[in-house]
Give the backbone structure.
Amino acid sequence: MNEDQRVVLITGASRGIGRAIALQLAGSETVLLLNHYDPEPAMAEQTLRDVEAKGARGKICFFSVADFQEVQSQIDGLQKEWGRIDVLINNAGITKDSLLMRMKEEDWDRVMGINLKGVFNCTQAVIRSMIRNKSGKIVNIASVSGVMGNAGQANYAASKAGIIGFTKSVAKEVAARGIQVNAIAPGFIETEMTAVLPEQVRQEFLRLIPMGRSGQPEEVAELAAFLVSKASDYITGQVIHISGGMYM
């Protein structure tokens, strides 16, 4: 492969914010490794076609970020195939909302496994080679819920708060090795995940946003693109909120 190309691994890349980031980064200078774990591959295949139409080289990577051994095996294979991974964007995430007193143990474990353990699994799998190369960019997608909390989302909020602590800790560990680790905390963004919310819940969210509107995945993607660019080389360990003022 061309040594000038950057190899970017995006988890949860088939839809929503992950797809928007892939499209934002797509270009002839980029190899995009598009992870997903959807039972139906159509969305991932469409994302691949779209990034290739913009000049990027792409590859669909089907594996569960929650499975430690699978992540280690898959990412090791990707690094051997492409030589390295320059950028990791930990985006994969799910919700299993319920009030705490009704929350099932499996719903707690599932959310924590994908949202938080998945970030650990993927980051650990790439960090050694980034340290050897003395360069790398890692962006973790957190959430405003991880800072403010949200009724009915104890599992989701806890997982996203964990990502914030993880981001700051890893940033301190690898800062001297030329690696920047940052987090993005989106607010209410129009994705498939938020589209299923009842209208009453949507209106309540909008009431909390000073800008009076929801955000778009493309707006998050533009911030991610900045954080993986050279323009952000002196930024690490930060949590950047993109929430229309929901959190200040």
